[in-house]
Amino acid sequence: MRKRWKCDLRSNNAMEHRRRYGYRRITAELHRRGMQINHKRVMRIMREDNLLGLQPKRFKVTTDSNHKFEVYLNLAARMKLSGINQLWVADITYIRRKAEFVYLAVILDGFSRKVVGWALDRTLAMQLTVGALEQAIESRQPQPGLVQHSDRGLQYARAEYITILEKHHMVPSMSRPANPYDNASCESFMKTLKREEIYANKYNDLEHLRANIEEFIDQYYNRQRLHSALGYRSPEEFEQKTESQAESRSATMVFFENKENNKKNSKGLLGKGTQMPSPSPDPFSC
Fold first, then answer.
1. Other residues' Cβ atoms within 10 Å of the Cβ of residue 208
2. What is the residue range of 76's domain?
3. Are residues 32 and 125 both part of a single domain?
4. What tens digit of pLDDT does each residue of 211-265 get?
5. What are phi and psi of 268, to 5 degrees?
6. Who's near 229: CB < 8 A, 6+ residues apart?
């Protein structure tokens, strides 16, 4: 039995997932295949056979929020999602190559964590974020009212970007100052991409990098990679399962009472059946 486990571990992590999976996801994958094995034993076998997942490198993301453009209300923090295309989360990161920096803009569906749009370029020009947004719109065709959340960066506040949102009846939302938690799901994806793809490979040129990112997103991350926040399902599997089970519902918005308001009024509101929102899945999980 141990030989069978070790064989499946090698096949899973080394061949199928290129050592991207840690022991928790490997355990979940083996359980999905009908094998009952404890996560501690999986970790021990992986350590013995040098199959542990690749470890992350530290990186930083900078945002230019010192601009004159309008900063929009943070709606994402108040939303309780019930399906796809209710909230999109956008972010930008840099990728260090041997002779240059390049930039990646990504848009995730806030409900399923699926990457719905992305663009790669050598500069932070408007075509970067606009390209990711236009790809997301083309692939998803969202209904009016979708909230698109980002940080307060210049690329998301400029008129060119806001005009596209308004054209498609989307509502802009921006993070609070110095609060990365609002954008955590997208930043978590960036961390995963760099740890499991970028730092694990070498690229001949920008087009080679672009091709590998496309394969990682479309073929692996969206379709195969198990997400702890989704009950160890891939984003596409999660969307398919929830779509078949859920009724057609809209996201709800939760507004919190100001502490300075009359306490009696606050108690009256909560006493009429108002429920506090249940905690969302950990946005840093991926």
1. 12
2. 56-286
3. no
4. 999 999 999 999 999 998 899 999 999 999 988 776 656 788 776 555 544 444 4
5. -65, -40
6. 113, 185, 281, 282, 283, 285, 286
